[in-house]
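Technical note accompanying the year-one report. For the benefit of new consortium partners, we illustrate the data format agreed upon in the data management plan: each record pairs a sequence with a structure-token string. No post-processing was applied to the example shown here.
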Amino acid sequence: MSKKTVLKKLKVHALRGATQALEVEFHKPLTLIYGENGTGKSTICDALDLLGNQRVGSVEGRGLGTTHGYWASVGKTKGDISVELETKSNTWQATVYGRNVNIKPQNAVPSVSVLRRSQILDLIQAKPADRFAVIKPFIDIAEIEKSEAELRSLIKSMEEGERQASIRIDENKASIENYWQRLGNRSQGNVIEWAKKEAQIDFNDVDSENTLLKELVQTLSTLKVDQRNYQQANQKLISAHSELEEKQQAVDEIIQAALPGTQDVLGILQAASHHFNSHPTVEKCPLCESSEFAYDLPNRVAEKISQLNTLNQAIANKKTADNNLSTHKGNTELEGNKLTQSITNLTQKTEACLVFQSLQKNEVKDTISTLQQQLALNIGSIETQSLNESIDKLLNDINQRCEQIAKYKGEINGLKSALQQYDSNIENQQASSALLPVLKKALQIHESERKQFVDDILGQIANEVGRLYELLHPGEGLNKIALMLDPVKRASLEIGADFYSLTNAPPAAYFSDSHLDTLGLCVFIAIATLNDLENTILILDDVLGSIDEPHVDRLVETLYDETQRFMHCIITTHYRPWREKFRMGQLRNGQCQLIELGKWSHHNGVTIGAKGTPPVDELRNLIEANPQSLQLICASAGVLLEQVCDFLTEKYECLMPRKKYGHTLGDLLPAINGKLRAALRTEIKQDDGSYLNHSLKDKIEELQNIASTRNIFGCHYNELANHLPTQDAQRFGQLVLEVAESIICPDEGLPSSDKSGSYWSTKSETRRLHPLRKPS
């Protein structure tokens, strides 16, 4: 019972040989495309390859480099290419843009497995690495290999990290030893232990010392400024005293040279002048109240005062000097207070700093002592130059100590950093040393599991290959096939086979071309079964190259059986015997559709030629035609009868004369003797599973009696044909049709199997032919 076909129609335009629109309809699950070389078989395969795999395999491996430029038909562009596949449930279309193939819709696109003649050579005769590349797409371990590669990369990275850590550890240790030398620790001992101890040093004391020293520097600087300011203010005070004394002496000298009491008189006159400024009219003397001399008294007073200007100026100068002295006394007192406070602050700071061991050095301590002695004097007695020398010396000592502190802290911090790096690298090295064996073990397990996984798949493929190979070469003992990964080279596939006493021998060294071809075909079919079979289109493109005649029938029968598991199978061939065996009903054709391609031309492109109608159907059509052609009926019936007789005489080993150019109907019919004719019968399986018996004896004997009708009507020009009744030609055709229909199953062909032990039968026993052996 044939299953329903899934594919319905393929449309191809502007791809390779499809210079004109090509449309292929599918009616059965197995499609045999027959055509001579150059008729366009590969174009149909390329169309499905483009849709399923986004490639055009027929132009690959020909030294063309990038093949996209050769996809389009001559005179067309890649943008013109269109492939459309219609099934019972969906329709997909493939178009080409640049180097990209666009598939719409993108969901549930059928998987397409294409085997070409060149791939058989790749599978069997290529280098192991190239052979693995062919099989790799069918073994989905991409994620496993990615994980394995990442693990391998991690191990390599960690090994390099461990090596780098070791180098850095040596560098860190050398750096620590340098600190050890610079810090004056040259005694014997463990340098790392010393470094760890030094790294625990608390900087609080040196930081406190450094802070106080900086404050002391500020105090000393302030003291120098205050001492300078005080000295300057005191010097100005002394100058003010001298100036006042000079001004007073000038006043005294003027008064002494003038009348006694001149100074007092000047005071009276100045008072009177002040009075007259507000009382310009004078009637009497404001002092004695006498009016005798009142006339013009203000003018006379002013005149008298003018006469005393020299004295007046001297008095003003003395007053200015007096004010200046008062100002400088205040400034000197203020600066003296500042200096006193600075001395107090310095005394406190020096006392605080002297507690630090670093400042107990004699020169520092002596300088501080000298400074303290100098500052203990009255501020007016301090000798500035000596004080400044003491301050400068102490500042220099303090700066040197601050530099020592900064350098020491820098060395210790550098030591701490080197020790931290040393500890970190030691920790990383130890972690790597602990983790690396685990990772290597994990990688080993990973590789083992991956290899086992692939080996299991390869074993599955090998078992399937052996099964298929035994079907094609039964009893030859060459079915023990092994597919093995090279244990050293991960992507290297070895093929081995038992050849007599040799085990796992390379087939290419011992098998014939025919055996290698069938082996490659078996490997490919076995690999293709790893796909989702119900969604896989299997394409065998002209793979029957060197398969010899004895194996062809078995190969065809095997392909019929095995390809039924796929969504669809397309087989292309230019092997004419296959086409003829199919047409003549010698092969099962119930599930197989034959498509014959016509001659290709650029004008017409790929064309569908004759439909390859089986002879039984052809004869039936001629008999049912109206009007009938007696010549065609007899010619078709004669060829079909020769085929049936050839089959019967071969199965029953009938005796016939040996002829150079084959046997004629005159040789074949008599060879089926009376005993065999009497025993010949067929059983035809009915829809309910029962069988209907048909005896062939009467029909064969009648056919022998009217066999000449075939020659008269169907083979030669014969005047007698114009006088014989048409019923004779019709009867000859009808008898042949009945005999052929009773023996040939339209789905499974001729009954060629003797496995029952009692009769010949088709594979599903739709026809049974009795007897199994010719009666003696």
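Partners are asked to follow this layout when depositing records. The longest strand covers residues 7-13.
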